[in-house]
Amino acid sequence: MAQKSVVPDNSRRDRGRALIVGGLALVGVGSSCTTAFFDPVFENSGAGFRAGCMVAVILSGVVMVPFGVHDLRKRRRLGTPTLMVPGGLRLPLGSVVPARFHRPGGRPLTWSSVTIKAALVCEEQATYSDGSISRTATSVVLRRELAVTRDQTSTQAAGVLTIEIPLTGPPSLNLTLNRIVWWLEVYVRGPGVPEDTSRYAMTILPAVAAEAPP
Amino acid sequence: VTAQLELDASVVECGSVVTGNVTWSPGGRRGPSRLVLRYRTEGRGNKESKVVARCFVGPGKTGQARFELAVPASGPVSYDGQLLRLIWEVVLDPLTSGATVDLTVVPSGWLRLAPEVAGWPHG
Hints:
The complex is a heterodimer. In chain A, strands 3, 5, 6, 9, 10 and 11 form a 6-stranded mixed sheet that branches. Chain A has a 5-stranded antiparallel sheet with strand order 1-2-4-8-7, with no helix packed on it. By secondary structure, chain A is an alpha+beta fold. Chain A is flat and about 75 Å long. Chain A contains 2 helices and 11 strands, in the order βααββββββββββ. Chain B is mainly β. Chain B has 1 helix and 9 strands. The mean pLDDT of chain B is about 85. Classes of the chains: A alpha+beta, B mainly beta.
């Protein structure tokens, strides 16, 4: 029997934590600078500009923290969405595998009003130097909607989808500055249901699946 | 030194071996010392390159040699996309005129596909 692999989507938790930590850091840095601002040493050097910068830094931090808290609360309410895939998300070209999506939290759903959709996305990412700054250009080269069959017996967001990796898609590429990345997105939408998108990173191997048509 | 590189096949799969012939004739101080199989990128991002295999072909001023260079099973494959391009090539080192030849690396198992899909769509 094929080994199953449960892949959690922890992006909401990670984003929430990053926003809170980053926001608090900005507030801390801004406050420290404000203290220094009143030091007589800095009295005569562009006071208005520096005061404006400090206020902007503190406000940015103050705005980020509630967004982070909101993300963590939403995750606590909805739970961590998971995808159960036989053998995991390292797949060759042309492979067709069933996967089960499950979101454990949230109020019981009225199924007639809720939809679950999924899409397979492939994106090129190219990092380049722009002066002393590094920038990354991205371009979606493939986006394919996947069929999802809702689990009618569950009152939570759950369903079965079929992951079909196109035979002619590019395999994943993971160089230092140039990458081709794949991911699977699952959307839960409906009136009275918090909008929720889960994202699962995939690795597409440079090989053709054994079951692909000869 | 002038040299000529000939591959047995210009399309190879990941995990297979690139084979061919190299011939060189006098014209300089010494002949080629080795062949390298490498890939490099072009496009929007900063360029990257990596030598994945080397093969010693002899120090003589003239000669002919067979070579074999292994392509990693993990790729990458040849690619020509919107933002980036990945090119595979066999290069004679030190570089001499006519001593670079491009090849196409495709996923393993690709060449067993039917002819109508066998052309690699990304390069």
